[in-house]
Amino acid sequence: MADYDYDVIVIGAGPGGYVAAIRAAQLGLRTACAEARETLGGTCLNVGCIPSKALLHASHVYEEAHSGSLAKFGIDFTGVSLNLDQMHAEKAKAVGELTGGIEFLFKKNKVTWLKGLASFTGPNSVTVGGQTVTAKDIVIATGSSVTPLPGVTVDQKIIVDSTGALALPRVPEHMVVIGGGVIGLELGSVWRRLGARVTVVEYLDQILPGFDGEVRKESARLFKKQGFELKTGMKVTGVTVKGKTATVTIEPAKGGAAETLSADAVLVSIGRKPNTDGLALDAIGLATNARGQIETDHAFRTSVAGVWAIGDVVPGPMLAHKAEDEGVAVAENIAGHTGIVNHDVIPSVVYTHPEIAGVGLTEEAAKERGEVKVGKFPFAGNSRAKTNRDTDGFVKIIADAASDRVLGVWIISSLAGTLIAEAALGMEFGATSEDIAYTCHAHPTHAEAIKEAAMAVTGKPIHI
Fold first, then answer.
1. What is the pLDDT of residues 238-293, one digit of tens each?
2. 152: number of Cβ within 10 Å
3. Rounded CA separation 99/84 (Å)
4. What is the set of active-site residues?
5. Residue spans of the chain under pLDDT 50
6. Closest to 434 in 3D by CA, of 410, 404, 464
7. Alpha helices, DSSP H, located in 34-138
8. What are 112's strand-pairing partners?
9. Phi and psi at residue 282, in whole multiples of 5°?
10. What span, in angstroms and rounded, lies between the C-alpha atoms of 407 and 361?
11. What is the pTM of this model?
C-alpha cells in the first residue's frame, strides 16, 4: 500500500472545504486543508455572506432609527448620524471572530493548514507553498469568483464588485447595480438604507432569476416602494469613468434606443464562475464542462480516481449551505460511510428587507411536471406581523394535486430566512400540505402563516 502524507487533502477552506476537512478528521482520517488566504472561511466568511449580513443588519438598524419609522411605537430619535467607519469596524470584528473560530476548530480536530495555492502534480499529489504533499484522496473545494462583465474594468473605487461594495469608504449619491440577482439586491439594499439612490439594471424582464414568478413580481413591487429604481429588460453596453463619475450606457435587451446613467458607484454583480484556474487539472486529465464546472457522480467523485469535488466548482446552486452539506457528505463517503445530499431540498434566501426565501420547485416548474395545488397566506392576516407592523409578504405552498406532497415553498417576510427551515425539514421528510396544516404552531408567531398557507392548499385557511 502506498505511503501518503495524509489520508485526505482538501483544496480550499471555504464553507465546503473547511467542513469537509473537519468532518474527515472527526472520522479518523489524517487531514490537511490547503488555503492561500491569510484567514480561513473562503469568500463566504471573508468577503461574502458574513460581512454582507453584518452590513445588512447595521444598515437596517440605522434606517429604523433615522427614518422615524419607530415613532409609531413611541420610540423617538433625534440627532441620529451615521458612523460608517465604525460600521465597517464592527463588520470586520465579526469576520475576525468567525475566521478565528475556524482556525480553532482546525487545531481542535488536528487538521493541518497548508498555507498557499494548491495545484495538482498527479491524482494523489499537489504542490502547496513550494512543497509537494500526497494523499490517498483529494477534494477540490475551491469555490467561485465574480464573473467579469466584458469591457468593464473593476477598479474597486468607482466600479466595484461584491468585495469592493462591502468596503466603500463613503455612501454613494447614486449607485448603479448591474444585475438584479441576490448579491446585487442585497448590497444595493445596504447602500440604499444608508442614503444612496440605487438603480438596478437587469437583463431579464424580472429581477431574481430562478425564483418563483409570483415572488419575483411582488419583490419588485416592494423594492420599488422602498425607493429602488428597477430597469428590467435592459442590457449594459458600456461603462466609462471620468474623474469620480461613471457613465453607464444601457439599451433594451430586445433592441431600442440607448440611454445613459450617471453614478458615483457602479456594482458589477452578474454572477459567479467556478475557481479552477491554477489547479493544473490537465496534469490529472480532468476536464471541466461547458460552464467551467467539474462534473461528479452522486457521491462527489470526479472522473479521476481518488479526486473528489464539492461546492461552487460542481453543478448546482452556488450556496454556502449547499457546499457545507456536500463537505460533510464527501468526507463520509471517503471514510467508507454513506454521505448523501438531497439537492431537491436546498433553500435559497435573499437577505433584503423583507427577506425572500424559497425551497423546492417554483410554481412554474411544478406545473411542467404535472397538476398542482397552491395555497397562499398573506402576512397581513398574521397576528404577530400585525403587532410588529411588518405585514409585507406572504407564504406560498405548492403541492402535488394527487399526492398532496409539498413540492415547493416560497416566503416573503422579514423572517423568511428563518421560516424556510420548517419548509425544508417538512419536505425532507416528505410532508404533505395536510401534515403541515395539522401541525400545531405557536401563537402568535410568524410561523402560523406557514400553517395557514398549508390549510389554503385545500381551501380552508382560517384568518382570510
1. 999 999 999 999 999 999 999 999 999 999 999 999 999 999 999 999 999 999 99
2. 18
3. 23
4. 443
5. 1
6. 404
7. 42-47, 49-67, 84-108
8. 32
9. -65, -25
10. 6
11. 0.97
